[in-house]
Amino acid sequence: xxQDLKYGARMLAKNPGFTFVAVxxxxxxxxxxxxxxxxxxxxxxxxxxxxxASEIVTVTGVVPRTGFVSPTSSTLSYPDYVDxxxxxxxxxxxxxxxxxxxxxxxxxxxxxxxxxxMAVSGNLFESLGVQTAIGRPVGVEDDRVxxxxxxxxxxxxxxAQQFSSDPGVVGRHIRLGGVDMTVIGVLPSGFTGPDQFxxxxxYIPFAMIPSLKSGGTSVELTSRDVRNLVVKxxxxxxxxxxxxxxxxxxxxxxxxxxxxxxxxxxxxxxxxEFAARVEARPPLAVMAIMLTTLAAVVLLVxxxxxxxxxxxxxxxxxxxxxxxxxxxxxxPRLIRxxxxxxxxxxxxxxxxxxxxxxGVIALFQSLRLPTDVPLNLAFELNPRVLAVGxxxxxxxxxxxxxxxxxxxxxxxxxxxxxxxxxxETRRVRxxxxxxxxxxxxxxxxxxxxxxVFLHRAYQAEFGRGPGFRTDHILTAxxxxxxxxxxxxxxxxxxxxxxxxxxxxxxxxSVALTSAVPMDQISIESMAxxxxxxxxxxxxxxxxxxxxxxxxxxxxxxxxxxxRGRVFxxxxxxxxxxxxxxxxxxxxxxxxxxxxxxxxxxxxEGDQPWVEIVGVAANARYRSVSExxxxxxxxxxxxxxxxxxxxxxxxxxxxxxxxxxxxxxxxAIDPNMPIFDLRTMEEFYAASTLTFxxxxxxxxxxxGSMGLVLAMTGLYGLVAxxxxxxxxxxxxxxxxxxxPGAIMRMVLRHGLLLAVGGTIGGVIASAALDGLLRxxxxxxxxxxxxxxxxxxVVPALLATTLLAASIxxxxxxxxxxxxAIRTD
Length: 823
Prior knowledge:
Elements: H1 2-14, H2 16-45, E1 56-62, E2 72-73, H3 78-87, E3 91-105, E4 113-120, H4 124-128, E5 134-135, E6 151-154, H5 156-163, E7 173-176, E8 179-186, E9 202-205, E10 230-235, H6 241-258, H7 260-263, E11 267-272, H8 273-280, H9 282-313, H10 318-326, H11 331-365, H12 383-408, H13 413-417, H14 422-464, E12 473-478, H15 487-502, E13 507-513, E14 524-530, E15 542-549, H16 553-557, E16 561-564, E17 578-582, H17 583-589, E18 599-602, E19 609-616, E20 631-635, E21 644-650, H18 658-668, E22 675-679, H19 680-724, H20 726-734, H21 739-767, H22 769-775, H23 786-812, H24 816-820
Parallel strand pairs: 4-9, 6-8, 15-20, 17-19
Antiparallel strand pairs: 1-2, 1-10, 1-11, 3-4, 3-7, 3-10, 5-8, 6-9, 7-8, 12-21, 12-22, 13-21, 14-15, 14-18, 16-19, 17-20, 18-19
């Protein structure tokens, strides 16, 4: 093996051009796959940072499919969790948690900050197998009696930032959600929490929830129809997933019989952590699949390129292989020698490819989502990504070298030594290389089609606009809970704030809302039962996205009212319940008629009928690529809305109002914190344009890589063909063929390869169209985007012909006399 390594290194050094192209080809494939695996790892694949993470499963609720809402409800109520925990036999432990938002202060006399944390069951840390760095974790005893044990465990990052990693923090009291709590421990630095994305700052037991002011995200400990807990369990060693699912299903059926009012049509099941993630966030899973698939396509193009290069060298090394066989070398020995050379190429390609992958990952690391939620989006070149890069490099070496190495040892030994047989095998080799090049062109067309489709789709969606104005608007979020406000006091604060901001120079209008479009965290949803609409069998309601807004919302955001009226100051808690729906709601539940005056009932709790008084134009609510989405606006005065965002429409630059707005807040209450103070234009660009531009650039970059590789492969094949036909071309020119005819003959060969690959690429692109539209469901893009193909196909043919024109011109300048003498 050492001899093979030394000889292989000398051979590669002797042919620097071949080595450079081969290493670069592998590097492109390795880099693309490493980067895209990092994305897939972050979005879907990365395991929890706990011991024996593969044993962790998720207990989820199941509700009937309706066609317009999510088919599953992954969360459970606290009483249901307790019943499953006490009755299930398949788990060594069952834990639960819930994200909460609460005010945080080192001391009671300090201004409060907003922090995201988790309320957890007392057995969570024991079940996960996580120990604290100092102190102790929340235990079962801390969760037994409601309000008895005000204890908190800090995340390591909060400990470092807020307390300078002081080990004396254990035993100190902090102010959390208006309650004095004792710090009992600090978690280790490597632990990011039980959730895939959220990185909490603190953990408290469920028993402290009734005492905590938690920003509207509290956990209801007694009601079965309030489902907001994520429940996970650790399977026993000898229990398969199917047995655990049946165990939980029977418990769910018993709960349905025992509590028909709250648990009707709500079953239970068990899913792996991976399956639960895919079901909870399907678009992320589909996007990860699409990106890794495209990266695999780039790898196939790279392997085809290297295989073509190795095949073109086979005739040159045919005598060498024959001589080695003649003096006693076995075929396995020669195959190993050539595969060792390919392995050296793969090693060089892996090093360069991981550097390319790191550069692509750095682009994703620069992505900053416009939210204060502590998201754990760690795109990184971790050991898992490195392992994938090395494995991809080794696989590429195997794929690209095995067939050329095997074929180089199968020729006729005597004929090869006599320089015969080359003509007999040349046709087979050319056909093999031709198929490889056609495949490269086809795969490159697939990559380019995806890139152009995404670019055109995003351009089309952005061109249509979001359905609301983004210019001349400033947003500022408030959480009065953090300043210990009750409901009436919070409303007095908002009333004074609106009056003072409206009086500022340059302010046209102000409004309050519970949710800002494109802010996926703040958008709410409520379960409704439309009057006179036949819901699917077994379904009593549908969940519809919603926001609570005031009378100035539609004017401030420029949302057009199609019919009816907007809210009035009199639409308060004493007035009949009203709502404004968007066009999608009106057309779905009351097709062909006017929705004004129709009613629906809110099914969460004993709620009165709600009358529709207006129909608003459709807009985008969570994503620029979302399809028609049902949305309902409620008057915020009829539904408690302590946490709200102030919208300020200005005549000039909205950023100039930021400082006067702060002064207005400070004049009312200097202890009231302000969050998310930004222009709507900046927020819209950060939440939509940044992400979409990055995706288009990444996919376009992979398409460019594939195109460069395809051009290299086509150039190599045509050049190889010209070199093998040098004598034939010389004879043709000697008997009167013009250089132009020779050039057309060579170009015709390249054009046939390009056309063959293009036809295959169009067929493959059409076959992948469904996957692409599942990942990016653009509602206003044609099912078959002809323009994309009209752009990509001519561009691809032109570039491939350009690659073939170089050897074609070289063939047209061949000296006939010298060519005829060529052996």
